[in-house]
Amino acid sequence: MFEIVAIFIVGLSVGFLNGFAGGASILSFPALIAVGLNPVTAAMTNALGVSTANIGALLGKSKYIKDIIKAESTLIGYSMIGAIIGGLALALMPIEGFQKLVPILILIASLTLFIKVQENLTPIKQKLQYFWLTFIGFYAGYFGPGQGVMTIAILARDAKRSVTDINISKNVVVTMTGLGSNLIYIVSGKVNWTYAGILAISCAIGGYFGAKVVDRFSREAYHMGIFIIGMLCAVWFAREYWLN
Description:
mainly alpha, about 0% strand, globular
């Protein structure tokens, strides 16, 4: 019973932070390890459970979703392809080696927030967006935590996107990206459905309230908040996978 309550509380926190920014699933992944799940089962259970945080964050923003999906359809497509490949890789291969790259990936993504944004993306920079979203999609399908921070870092490169646009686009991209990889997790039979269900409920609740907060931030304050979360993610992963 204690484990169930603990995971529910962690899910509320993860949902709130993911609804606001992303990257908070680094809290739920070790929590699932702590209650006895192996790394692969924890990764799949975590991905399925926390996916509702982005869905919860989109509640109340439904009038924007159709336009966002249309505007970001190409980015979503590339990200989904990457996620499906990553999900297959997780189902078939161990994740230990890839974990060591995670701190570097999140650090780089967080630092890009300080690069001057572009008023208009050139065709080459647009193609780079496709490449990075495909790679982030693969990362999301293969491991997951930190996807939101990295996705925001890419979307924020375009000055035409407001803070609200970036946040809603991130939630749409992350939600759509997870469809393919989540199906693979379900078919794999490696998901712990008790903990996945608890996370799904608590993350949806937290995500709804997290999305309410984001509209109150300026672009600069939002970037700084994402950067701080990203740095904390990078430090946690470095300590977990480099020093242990």
